[in-house]
Structure prediction request, 281 residues.
Amino acid sequence: MTPARRVAYLGAVALAAAVLACAYAGWGSPHAWAPFALAAGVAVSEIAVVHLAFGRQRWSFSCTDGAIGAALVFATGSWTVVAVVVGVLVAQTVRRQPRLKVWFNVAQFAASTGVAAAFSHWLGGGLYGASAGMGWFWLLNHGLVAGAVAFTSGRRLRGLLWASAPMSALHTAGNTSVGLLAAWLALNAPLGLLGLLVPMALLWWSYDQQTRRAAEIHARYLINGERTCIDCHKGIAHELPDMTGIEPGWQAPPEMRGERSSWHDDREAMRTYLANVRVNK
Prediction:
């Protein structure tokens, strides 16, 4: 069985779990505008995702779990699953993600939100129910993502679960805390919500600027050969490692392959090609 088919089957299992959770939780009794608001919030959050690199791991940060946690405070039920699925589907379509990724991400969020809604419903909702439900949201979401990565990369599932658990839990806890605080303010002191807008916007902007700045620096100095990774990251490595016998991690593009007059020509051609590559900001 191919890795892609395994991921597709994992998504099917997740979707089945979402259906069972929704059947237990019921639709709930949200306000008429709540599903539309949650779907819009999830769509915006998933479109405005921020990517950060920590060591060899690349993380994608969004506020989706915070929006789900806030929604569960107002009303439990499967309405949250429907709204989240619509929001994720819209965001994935806008970002033009591959079909398999769209399928898995929709199923992943559906299952995680469904379990969170069911557990929150069982506990009677409110802040306590939403907090506990989001704990299950993280657990299932983290497990599904690790399973998909294990299928596609061939790495051991246990190692993936433990390696990324701290950062994943911290991200979910932080976003959920903001979402729960926003829900409490909306119920008890609506004007206090204005106090969350500025720090949240600044936080997202700082992360976004960090990724843009890194891309600009790489394009300016790495591609044309003015600097190396070590020049800027001397605290990480002070000299090049011994790469004897290790295959290079890149290959020349097809139009540059073939016989050349000298190694110098190859190097200059590669630099010219990379310097013309468009950097997406």
Summary: The chain has two domains: 3-188, 201-235+249-281. Residues 201-235+249-281 form one domain.
